[in-house]
Amino acid sequence: xxxFLLRRLAQGAIVMLTVAFLAFMLFQYVGDPxxxxxxxxxxxxxxxxxxxxxGLDQPFALQFVRFVGNAVRGEFGLSLRxxxxxxxxxxxxxxxxxxxxxxxxxLALAVGLPLGVIAALKRGTALAQAxxxxxxxxxxxxxxxxxxxxxxVFSVGLGWLPSFGRGDVVQLGPWSTGLLTLDGxxxxxxxxxxxxxxxxALIQRLVRAEMLEVLRTxxxxxARARGLSQRAVHFRHALKNTLVPVIxxxxxxxxxxIAFAIITETVFQWPGMGLLFIQAVSFADxxxxxxxxxxxxxxxxxxxxxxxxxxxxxxPRLRVxxxxxxx
Length: 327
Prior knowledge:
This protein is mainly α. It has a domain at about 85-270: Orthogonal Bundle (MetI-like fold), CATH 1.10.3720.10. It is about 75% helix and about 0% strand. A two-stranded antiparallel ribbon has the order 1-2. A hairpin with a 2-residue loop joins β1 and β2 (about 175). α5 (about 85-120) packs parallel to α13, α10 (about 230-260) runs antiparallel to α13 (about 285-315) and α13 (about 285-315) crosses α14 (about 315-325). It is globular, with a radius of gyration of 24 Å.
């Protein structure tokens, strides 16, 4: 297990270096930070002085090494748009994005998993067909359209829920959360449901397909022949073996929820990293864009590592195979 963990960490380090190089290239080919900071009226002497202060007059390789060193410490310089440290901006926006993505992921799992099981066990019934129609609709509709429809119905039509913003938040040290206030929950409902629907439908369809496949295997027939109850067969044996691919997809989708919450945050003006990234792209704020890319890559690497470790917990056969390979 230790060798497996070290191998995964080495692969993650390679991925992060690759993403760091791509993020660093933004500084080379997207705009000129000197022009953004000084404006068009600056003298050549002022430009050269600032370029020297920023280290832009140094060789390419040395600039990249310094960029990686600063990135490891979480430093990406100053935002060209706001004139504040990028690490401070990310720290302010990260809680909102993690809160939104976390609630959306829990909602997708809590609803998609049982709906997938029901669709598999009730195969051929009107209920199963209705669930599959819902899942098809969920994976087909664009996220921005779902968000607009929810706003139209629940904010404009019924007036039950707010349509933008994060609401009242509570500051817990450097961390802010709206989960401890009623107004925060009211603002969270619509964006969380919007972000969760696609993942929910995907998990439902995956669980149904894997459950039907597992129910046709020999060991399920053997379990039934032993006289085990349907509940034991379905939930103790079939569902457990269905979870391995579900963990894979769910882990990757959790990273996607964080990375691609941009559309949802834009529709609902949710003050998270996605909205910050959209504003940075429109202004060519390269330090913020680079920091966002590196942070999202780190989140994906960590999630994949956790998913790989969970495999061994869910499926003991993987532990045996790794032990045999190591021996």
